[in-house]
Amino acid sequence: MSLFVWETKVYGSYLKKLKITAQKNIVLKPAELIVNDTDHKVFNEDTNRLIQKIKGDILYLDPPYNQRQYATNYHLLETIAKYDNPKIHGKTGLRNYDNQKSAYCSRTKVKSAFKNLITNAKVKYIFLSYNNEGLMTAGDIKEIMSLRGKYGYFTKAYGRFKADKNRDYGADRTTEYLHYVICD
Ligand SMILES: C[S@@+](CC[C@H](N)C(=O)[O-])C[C@H]1O[C@@H](n2cnc3c(N)ncnc32)[C@H](O)[C@@H]1O
Fold this sequence. Notes:
Elements: H1 47-50, E1 58-61, H2 70-73, H3 75-82, E2 88-89, E3 94-95, H4 110-120, E4 125-131, H5 138-145, E5 149-159, H6 162-165, E6 173-183
Parallel strand pairs: 1-4
Antiparallel strand pairs: 2-3, 4-6, 5-6
The protein binds S-adenosylmethionine (SAM).
Protein backbone atom coordinates (compact mmCIF):
# COMPACT_ATOMS: atom_id res chain seq x y z
CA MET A 1 0.00 0.00 0.00
CA SER A 2 2.98 2.29 0.33
CA LEU A 3 5.53 4.21 -1.60
CA PHE A 4 8.66 3.45 0.40
CA VAL A 5 10.33 6.76 1.13
CA TRP A 6 12.64 7.02 4.12
CA GLU A 7 12.38 10.48 5.59
CA THR A 8 11.95 12.15 8.94
CA LYS A 9 10.15 15.37 8.03
CA VAL A 10 6.95 16.47 6.32
CA TYR A 11 6.58 19.44 3.96
CA GLY A 12 3.01 20.50 4.75
CA SER A 13 3.54 23.87 6.49
CA TYR A 14 4.97 27.19 5.42
CA LEU A 15 7.83 28.29 7.69
CA LYS A 16 8.66 32.00 7.87
CA LYS A 17 12.20 31.15 8.86
CA LEU A 18 14.04 28.07 7.65
CA LYS A 19 14.80 25.71 10.51
CA ILE A 20 18.40 24.55 10.88
CA THR A 21 17.35 21.06 9.86
CA ALA A 22 15.74 22.45 6.68
CA GLN A 23 19.02 24.12 5.69
CA LYS A 24 20.94 20.87 5.44
CA ASN A 25 21.80 19.56 1.99
CA ILE A 26 19.45 16.92 0.63
CA VAL A 27 21.30 13.67 0.14
CA LEU A 28 19.77 11.13 -2.22
CA LYS A 29 20.94 7.61 -1.47
CA PRO A 30 20.08 4.48 -3.42
CA ALA A 31 17.58 2.22 -1.65
CA GLU A 32 19.24 -0.73 0.08
CA LEU A 33 17.46 -3.64 -1.53
CA ILE A 34 17.68 -7.16 -0.14
CA VAL A 35 18.60 -9.30 -3.12
CA ASN A 36 17.64 -12.97 -2.89
CA ASP A 37 16.17 -15.75 -5.03
CA THR A 38 12.60 -15.20 -3.91
CA ASP A 39 10.17 -13.83 -6.49
CA HIS A 40 8.45 -10.58 -5.67
CA LYS A 41 6.53 -7.81 -7.38
CA VAL A 42 6.25 -4.13 -6.54
CA PHE A 43 3.15 -2.11 -7.47
CA ASN A 44 2.44 1.60 -7.38
CA GLU A 45 -1.29 2.12 -7.67
CA ASP A 46 -4.45 2.65 -5.69
CA THR A 47 -4.82 -0.23 -3.29
CA ASN A 48 -8.53 -0.70 -3.96
CA ARG A 49 -7.84 -1.18 -7.66
CA LEU A 50 -4.81 -3.37 -7.05
CA ILE A 51 -6.67 -5.71 -4.69
CA GLN A 52 -8.87 -6.85 -7.61
CA LYS A 53 -5.82 -8.22 -9.43
CA ILE A 54 -3.66 -9.91 -6.79
CA LYS A 55 -3.86 -12.84 -4.38
CA GLY A 56 -1.59 -14.20 -1.68
CA ASP A 57 -1.32 -15.54 1.86
CA ILE A 58 -0.92 -12.40 3.98
CA LEU A 59 -2.21 -8.88 3.37
CA TYR A 60 -0.55 -6.30 5.63
CA LEU A 61 -2.09 -2.82 5.55
CA ASP A 62 -0.59 0.38 6.95
CA PRO A 63 -2.93 3.07 5.60
CA PRO A 64 -3.12 6.73 6.63
CA TYR A 65 -5.35 7.09 9.67
CA ASN A 66 -6.10 10.82 9.74
CA GLN A 67 -7.26 13.54 7.35
CA ARG A 68 -3.81 14.78 6.41
CA GLN A 69 -3.26 13.77 2.80
CA TYR A 70 0.21 12.33 2.17
CA ALA A 71 0.43 14.17 -1.14
CA THR A 72 0.45 17.54 0.66
CA ASN A 73 3.03 16.42 3.22
CA TYR A 74 5.51 14.82 0.83
CA HIS A 75 5.07 16.91 -2.34
CA LEU A 76 8.73 17.98 -2.41
CA LEU A 77 9.91 14.38 -2.47
CA GLU A 78 7.35 13.64 -5.19
CA THR A 79 8.78 16.43 -7.32
CA ILE A 80 12.34 15.27 -6.70
CA ALA A 81 11.37 11.74 -7.74
CA LYS A 82 9.45 12.87 -10.82
CA TYR A 83 11.81 15.76 -11.64
CA ASP A 84 8.99 17.29 -13.69
CA ASN A 85 9.03 21.01 -12.81
CA PRO A 86 5.26 21.15 -12.06
CA LYS A 87 3.02 24.21 -11.75
CA ILE A 88 2.83 24.95 -8.04
CA HIS A 89 0.43 26.94 -5.90
CA GLY A 90 -0.10 28.19 -2.34
CA LYS A 91 2.43 29.24 0.27
CA THR A 92 3.97 25.80 0.49
CA GLY A 93 4.32 25.43 -3.29
CA LEU A 94 1.99 22.46 -3.66
CA ARG A 95 1.85 20.54 -6.91
CA ASN A 96 -1.57 19.44 -8.15
CA TYR A 97 -2.59 16.28 -6.30
CA ASP A 98 -6.20 15.82 -7.47
CA ASN A 99 -5.51 12.25 -8.61
CA GLN A 100 -3.61 11.35 -5.43
CA LYS A 101 -6.26 12.12 -2.83
CA SER A 102 -6.75 9.10 -0.61
CA ALA A 103 -10.16 7.85 0.51
CA TYR A 104 -8.35 6.66 3.66
CA CYS A 105 -7.90 10.34 4.65
CA SER A 106 -11.58 11.17 4.22
CA ARG A 107 -14.03 10.85 7.09
CA THR A 108 -16.90 10.27 4.67
CA LYS A 109 -15.12 7.78 2.38
CA VAL A 110 -12.81 5.75 4.58
CA LYS A 111 -15.24 3.11 5.81
CA SER A 112 -16.62 2.17 2.41
CA ALA A 113 -13.08 2.11 0.90
CA PHE A 114 -11.86 -0.13 3.73
CA LYS A 115 -14.88 -2.45 3.47
CA ASN A 116 -14.34 -2.74 -0.28
CA LEU A 117 -10.66 -3.57 0.29
CA ILE A 118 -11.27 -6.16 2.98
CA THR A 119 -14.12 -7.92 1.19
CA ASN A 120 -12.16 -8.12 -2.07
CA ALA A 121 -8.88 -9.42 -0.60
CA LYS A 122 -8.02 -12.93 -1.85
CA VAL A 123 -5.76 -13.88 1.09
CA LYS A 124 -5.69 -16.13 4.17
CA TYR A 125 -4.72 -13.53 6.77
CA ILE A 126 -5.19 -9.76 6.93
CA PHE A 127 -3.29 -7.47 9.32
CA LEU A 128 -3.95 -3.76 9.78
CA SER A 129 -1.83 -1.20 11.68
CA TYR A 130 -3.99 1.66 12.92
CA ASN A 131 -4.09 3.88 15.98
CA ASN A 132 -6.80 4.77 18.47
CA GLU A 133 -7.20 8.33 17.11
CA GLY A 134 -7.86 7.29 13.51
CA LEU A 135 -10.85 8.18 11.33
CA MET A 136 -12.21 4.66 11.83
CA THR A 137 -12.89 3.52 15.39
CA ALA A 138 -11.73 0.14 16.66
CA GLY A 139 -15.42 -0.83 16.55
CA ASP A 140 -15.71 0.11 12.85
CA ILE A 141 -12.64 -1.95 12.05
CA LYS A 142 -13.83 -4.96 14.03
CA GLU A 143 -17.22 -4.84 12.28
CA ILE A 144 -15.64 -4.72 8.81
CA MET A 145 -12.82 -7.24 9.35
CA SER A 146 -15.18 -9.70 11.07
CA LEU A 147 -17.00 -10.01 7.74
CA ARG A 148 -14.08 -12.21 6.65
CA GLY A 149 -13.63 -14.56 9.62
CA LYS A 150 -12.14 -14.77 13.11
CA TYR A 151 -11.11 -11.26 14.22
CA GLY A 152 -8.62 -10.20 16.92
CA TYR A 153 -6.16 -7.47 17.81
CA PHE A 154 -2.99 -6.62 19.73
CA THR A 155 -2.23 -3.17 21.21
CA LYS A 156 0.84 -1.23 22.23
CA ALA A 157 1.10 2.21 23.89
CA TYR A 158 3.27 4.58 21.90
CA GLY A 159 4.81 8.07 22.33
CA ARG A 160 2.96 10.60 20.18
CA PHE A 161 4.44 11.41 16.75
CA LYS A 162 6.56 14.56 17.31
CA ALA A 163 4.74 16.85 14.82
CA ASP A 164 1.46 16.01 16.57
CA LYS A 165 2.79 17.11 19.96
CA ASN A 166 2.39 20.75 18.95
CA ARG A 167 -1.26 20.22 18.19
CA ASP A 168 -4.00 20.41 20.70
CA TYR A 169 -4.18 16.80 21.88
CA GLY A 170 -4.77 15.77 25.47
CA ALA A 171 -2.67 12.62 25.70
CA ASP A 172 1.03 12.40 24.87
CA ARG A 173 0.69 8.66 24.25
CA THR A 174 -1.44 6.88 21.71
CA THR A 175 -2.44 3.25 21.38
CA GLU A 176 -1.25 1.45 18.28
CA TYR A 177 -3.44 -1.44 17.18
CA LEU A 178 -2.53 -4.44 15.11
CA HIS A 179 -5.93 -5.76 14.00
CA TYR A 180 -6.09 -9.13 12.27
CA VAL A 181 -8.53 -11.53 10.77
CA ILE A 182 -8.07 -15.18 9.92
CA CYS A 183 -10.15 -15.48 6.77
CA ASP A 184 -12.76 -18.27 6.47
C1 LIG B 1 1.15 5.18 7.09
S1 LIG B 1 1.87 5.35 5.50
C2 LIG B 1 2.67 3.82 5.26
C3 LIG B 1 4.08 3.88 5.63
C4 LIG B 1 4.87 2.62 5.25
N1 LIG B 1 4.27 1.42 5.81
C5 LIG B 1 6.27 2.76 5.77
O1 LIG B 1 6.59 2.18 6.82
O2 LIG B 1 7.05 3.48 5.13
C6 LIG B 1 0.47 5.23 4.42
C7 LIG B 1 0.82 5.16 2.93
O3 LIG B 1 -0.34 4.80 2.18
C8 LIG B 1 -0.36 5.54 0.97
N2 LIG B 1 -1.76 5.54 0.49
C9 LIG B 1 -2.82 6.26 0.94
N3 LIG B 1 -3.93 5.93 0.30
C10 LIG B 1 -3.60 4.96 -0.60
C11 LIG B 1 -4.33 4.21 -1.56
N4 LIG B 1 -5.65 4.40 -1.73
N5 LIG B 1 -3.67 3.31 -2.31
C12 LIG B 1 -2.33 3.10 -2.13
N6 LIG B 1 -1.58 3.77 -1.23
C13 LIG B 1 -2.22 4.69 -0.48
C14 LIG B 1 0.16 6.90 1.39
O4 LIG B 1 0.62 7.63 0.26
C15 LIG B 1 1.30 6.49 2.32
O5 LIG B 1 2.47 6.25 1.60
